[in-house]
Design a protein that fits this description.
Chains A, B: Belongs to the pseudomonas-type ThrB family. Chains A, B: Its EC number is 2.7.1.39. Two copies of one chain form a homodimer. With 315 residues, chain A is α+β, with helices and mostly antiparallel strands. Chain A folds into two domains: 95 residues, Phosphorylase Kinase, domain 1; 196 residues, Alpha-Beta Complex (Aminoglycoside 3'-phosphotransferase, Chain: A, domain 2). Chain A is 40% helix and 16% strand. Chain A has a five-stranded antiparallel beta sheet with strand order 1-2-3-5-4, with helices on one face. Chain A has a two-stranded antiparallel ribbon with strand order 6-9. Chain A has a two-stranded antiparallel ribbon with strand order 7-8. In chain A, a hairpin with a 2-residue loop joins strand 7 and strand 8. Chain A is globular and about 60 Å long.
Chain lengths: 315, 315
């Protein structure tokens, strides 16, 4: 749920005049993405999404994200495409913010993914990874193993507010992951946040991927582990074997996993669990009283971590 | 800024199956209206708005609002049109809420209305009033003169938190208005909340009116006074004569004002100021700490009230 910046109609009309996409017909703030302000934009040339980048996205990273979306589309991975302005640039400024217009993508997020959705996701994710192989942009993963302890440490003393014993669980897990984190797996640009919210479907068919603002260079199999955690557990946070198998099999049909990736997968899955456990934990402690946006419960990812701690070899 | 209720894709697809408007292609929560949850809905038949009614709108009033929108459109006043489902009903249920689908209206709100916009508004408002003359629905104005004192009384003691002397100003004004409120002016269904947010334009041309959820039976000229206050003051809350003249002249060309309406107008304008002063005052005091939605400043309407208290006879 977003829309932080109000856009004045006169400013918007002036901004649109720098593009070749017709006249303004409608513009409505939409509740999509949590990092930026997004608007459904209708012009005489069609439908678009207008995005204003808020402070949480570093302006220096924008060429990487926009270049990645253009690159993926050229390789057949459907995602929003930046529209270039009359000067040929994908990035402009509106209401004091960096701003882009991207193509509108039909499709809707699936709240309770079925086996067929997990299979479609696996196939798309593998295509996405193959497509990034020759992408020249680079962006470090600021939320990988080395960042987890510094992320947790400042508020470790409040862990009991979330669950008794959480501090000990997290610190023991960080000890384990820092010792055992795999370092030389096949890598490239990964989405790093491909939750059901960021995948569009039309029926069982995946129609597109959105929200690349966590994309970075890291192990492909880590991206797959993030998806397994996000898509293949039920509402009570129990692993659903059939969905997990569907995701992994579909992925492996397009991009086979190496022996090292298979070997490392349980560790990657634990790491993918602690990464979202920790960011949710920090958000949970820092939510302003009375805020309209309910933070996501970090305990969901504690349950997933516990599953992976004991489920070695489910692949 | 709205979107309170999350709609599950499976529920939405089942809901759409009760309509004859094709298959779901996209549905995005939009930041429009403050009383309800609204979604931009794209189907294979076109674009629509899906509205879920939250608790602030009484379900018993919905047939009045929906009937009014259908009536106005038949009389040539452009506004969203409820789409009837296969059973012929405009109202259904989705996610536990009363729900309607209405046609999508192109146009955008003007943040700083110019003289031409005020003239277009006056013409549209007069047409709207004439068009309601033969509408059979009735709904009392729950926010008219008799409601203002009970609205203010419970929190009158906190008025100094907003501005020193506010309590005395409001109570003296209520004394004046209760004694002088005109009771037999030409009446019918009025919009009662036609702020710039609720008027759509394409250039200088008014393309539609939205958000009828305060519509009620009351004096036509009171609706005009609400618009004068909302459209014809600058950002420093100073009256802009040219805009006020444009609004009133355009209105009177379509629907002439009677002598009684002209005579009562200064009183109606003071009442229209205190009505929004008081609801904003109550919202201002009751905003939760840290809430993302910033309440509107009641002092804007205190400034407008003071203008009308001293500007007798500006018509």
């Amino acid at each position: 749920m977003a829309v932080y910046t109000q856009v004045d109609d006169a400013e918007l009309i002036a901004f649109l005049a720098t593009y070749d996409i017709g006249d303004l017909l409608s513009c409505k703030g939409i509740a999509e993405g949590v990092e930026n302000s997004n608007y459904y934009l209708h012009t005489s040339a069609g439908s678009f999404i207008l995005t204003l980048y808020e402070k949480r996205v570093a302006e220096a990273d924008l060429p990487f994200f926009l270049g990645l979306m253009e690159h993926l589309a050229r390789r057949g991975v459907t995602c929003p495409q930046p529209v270039r302005n009359r000067a040929g640039a994908p990035l402009g400024r509106l209401a004091g913010r960096p701003a882009v217009i991207v193509t509108f993508l039909d499709g809707y997020s699936v709240h309770h993914p079925e086996v067929a959705h997990c299979a479609a996701l696996g196939e798309t994710l593998a295509h996405l990874h193959l497509a990034t192989a020759d992408f020249e942009g680079r962006r470090a993963n600021a939320l990988s193993v080395d960042s987890w302890r510094p992320l947790f440490a400042p508020s470790a003393g409040r862990a009991n507010e979330v669950e008794i014993g959480l501090r000990e669980t997290v610190e023991a897990e960080l000890d384990h992951l820092e010792k055992n984190w795999p370092r030389n797996l096949p890598s490239g640009v990964i989405h790093a946040d491909l939750f059901p919210d960021n995948a569009f479907f039309l029926g069982d068919k995946m129609s597109g991927v959105i929200d690349f603002y966590f994309a970075c260079n890291d192990a492909y199999a880590y991206d797959l582990a993030i998806c397994l955690n996000a898509w293949c557990f039920d509402d009570a946070h129990r692993f659903e074997t059939e969905k997990g198998t569907a995701l992994l099999s579909a992925y492996r049909r397009v991009r086979p996993l190496t022996a090292a990736e298979l070997d490392a997968f349980p560790t990657l899955a634990r790491g993918a669990a602690i990464r979202f456990l920790l960011t949710r934990y920090v958000d949970w402690l820092n939510v302003p009283k009375g805020a309209l946006v309910k933070p996501k419960d970090p305990r969901e990812y504690l349950a997933k971590l516990r599953f992976h701690q004991t489920a070695d070899g489910f692949l």
